[in-house]
């Protein structure tokens, strides 16, 4: 049925087949390059998103204590001793906002815009918390323009205060003015 092959019957690769093969290799190389570039871009974007998400969760301010100055049986000034939460990076208090939500409404204030300066109690330099042992006193006068629309806090008044760091991490504290304030008191723990 089949005849024996001779030297004249050998298959030969034509120039056209060679060109098609080279073109396929080039297309595959270009496609691989696009995939590698896309994968690199996605990896970079994922790393940046992960770092931002971690900062939003961990770069929090910790409220160590909260008190108020009593004048005429009302609280006219709030004092917060703050530190950086465990695992937090550096926290610049001047880039921090404080939101007040209470019976008198809602107000937001930048720490850098307060009429009273941030007092560095322990270790804080230039209003930046760098170490877990750093402490700073943030004083807010509610009777001035610091907290727009607010006046002194009355007996029994409640107020939610939220500190938001520059990375977006938040810490909320619930303040409750005691139901009875006396003229002998000059400060009260909230």
Q: How is this structure best described in words?
A:
The chain has one helix at 15-58; strands at 61-71, 74-84, 91-92, 97-102, 105-110, 119-122, 128-129, 135-141, 158-164, 170-176, 187-189. It is rod-shaped, with a radius of gyration of 33 Å. By secondary structure, the protein is of the alpha+beta class. The strands form three sheets. It has a five-stranded antiparallel beta sheet with strand order 6-8-2-1-11, with no helix packed on it. It has a four-stranded antiparallel beta sheet with strand order 5-4-9-10, with no helix packed on it. A two-stranded antiparallel sheet has the order 3-7.
The count of β-strands is 11
Give the oligomeric state of the chains in this entry, treating copies of one chain as homo and distinct chains as hetero.
single chain
Query: What's the number of helices?
Result: 1
Strand content: 25-35%
* CATH topology type of the largest domain: Immunoglobulin-like
Going across the major beta sheet, what is the strand order? 6-8-2-1-11
Look at the structure and name the CATH superfamily of the largest domain: Immunoglobulins
CATH class of the largest domain: Mainly Beta
- What is the averaged pLDDT score? 85
Largest sheet at a glance? 5 strands, antiparallel
Give, in order, the helices and strands: HEEEEEEEEEEE
Structural class: alpha+beta
Second-tier CATH architecture of the largest domain: Sandwich
Helix content: 10-25%
Low-confidence runs of at least 5 consecutive residues: none
Radius of gyration: 33 Å
Q: Write down the domain tally.
A: 2
**What is the global morphology?**
rod-shaped
- First CA to last CA: what distance? 105 Å
């Amino acid at each position: 049925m089949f005849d024996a092959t001779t030297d004249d019957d050998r298959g030969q690769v034509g120039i056209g087949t060679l060109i098609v093969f080279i073109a396929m290799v080039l297309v595959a190389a270009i496609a691989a390059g696009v995939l590698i570039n896309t994968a690199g871009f996605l990896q970079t974007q994922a790393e940046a998103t992960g770092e931002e998400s971690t900062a939003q969760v961990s770069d929090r301010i910790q409220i160590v204590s909260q008190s108020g100055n009593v004048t005429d049986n009302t609280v006219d000034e709030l004092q917060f001793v703050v530190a950086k939460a465990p695992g937090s990076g550096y926290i610049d208090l001047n880039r921090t906002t404080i939101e007040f939500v209470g019976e008198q409404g809602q107000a937001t204030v930048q720490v850098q815009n307060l009429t009273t300066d941030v007092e560095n109690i322990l270790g804080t330099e230039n209003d930046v918390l760098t170490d877990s042992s750093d402490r700073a006193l943030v004083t807010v006068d509610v009777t001035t323009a610091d907290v727009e629309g607010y006046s002194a806090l009355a007996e029994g008044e409640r107020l939610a205060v939220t500190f938001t760091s520059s990375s977006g991490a938040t810490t909320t504290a619930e303040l409750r003015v005691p139901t009875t304030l006396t003229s002998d008191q000059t400060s009260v723990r909230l």
